[in-house]
Amino acid sequence: MKKYFSILRINWINALEYRGNALIGLFAILSGLFIEYQIWSLIFSSNNYSTISMQGVENGYTFNSLIVFIFLSIIVGQLKSSWVTSTQMILEIRQGLINKYLIRPVSYFWYHFMMFVGVNSLYFLVYLSLLMFFVTIFPGLLFQTWQSIVGFGISLILSIYLSYCIYFVMVCFAFWFGEVRSIVVAYNIGMLMVSGQYIPIRLFPPEVLSVIKWTPIPYLVDLPVSIATGIVDKTQWGVEIGIASLWCLVLTFISFMIYQIGIKGYEAYGQ
User: Fold this and answer.
1) Radius of gyration of the chain (CA)
2) Which of 86, 111, 215, 221 is most deeply buried (CB count within 10 A of its CB)?
């Protein structure tokens, strides 16, 4: 376990050396929020809406509460993204650089997870300061109870881990296919549409939402944000966190299984 924390620490130090990337990420969040603000401002003003109804939201969403929901969704979406880590893993597999991990006493899965956490730790601190600012200017719309803070923290950790597992499964396809990055790009675009990062999934038609609920998608963005904004109370989010945990176990098993199959073929062909 100590060796994995060393990996985390090293990548945290590397992230500090390239802290300009965190500022770029912050700019991306603010840009996305500005665009969303303009779009929803136009929707509310042109239709004279005071609230917009959402499934599971008793009194609908006011403009301010919707903007806070979307803002937090963008932050969670950024934190769970493993694009950089997955791209590196794909290149390692395709170029034979994975060989160095085969002779080390480390798990390829956990090595890159700790590397991912170490790199994203700096982003987390930057986004946390921005989140605290929003809590100040929109009092009562975020973290109304201490239980919601705990629930948000737990669900965010599960979201990040769940997202990493999904990326890892896609990365393992590189053992059999020449170009996997297009799959990752397609997944990223799809998640922008259906994970709730820019459009709350509770605005989707009931038929679509009923399908999504049978997948890990609601636990990537919607669950942490719904807990933070009070849509899901502590009696509900306990069940939801339990389901998210089960998805983590299932995808961890799938990740290790696919990796073992892929690495056996990789070694058999003497890559």
Assistant:
1) 20
2) 221
CB 246 within 8 A of CB 185: no
The mean of the pLDDT values for the chain is 79
SS in 3 state form for the chain?
CHHHHHHHHHHHHHHHHCCHHHHHHHHHHHHHHHHHHHHHHHHHHHCCCCCEEECCEEEEECHHHHHHHHHHHHHHHHHHCCHHHHHHHHHHHHCCCCHHHHCCCCCHHHHHHHHHHHHHHHHHHHHHHHHHHHHHHCCCCCCCCHHHHHHHHHHHHHHHHHHHHHHHHHHHHHHCCCCCHHHHHHHHHHHHHHCCCCCCHHHCCHHHHHHHCCCCHHHCCHHHHHHHHCCCCHHHHHHHHHHHHHHHHHHHHHHHHHHHHHHHHHHHCCC
Distance (Å, rounded) from C-alpha 204 to C-alpha 196? 10
For residue 62, what are its two tokens?
A: 């006011």
Q: pLDDT value at position 268?
A: 47
CA distance 148 to 143: 5
Q: What pTM value is reported for the model?
A: 0.85
Of 96, 99, 126, the residue nearest 27 (C-alpha)? 126
CA 53 – CA 262 distance, rounded (Å): 47
Higher pLDDT, 52 or 255: 255
Spell out the domain ranges in the chain: 2-268
pLDDT band of 7, cuts 50, 70, 90: low
Residue 182: is its pLDDT beyond 80? yes
Q: How many CB atoms lie within 10 A of CB 75?
A: 29
Cβ neighbours of residue 54 closer than 8 Å, sequence gap 6 or more: 60, 61, 200, 202, 203
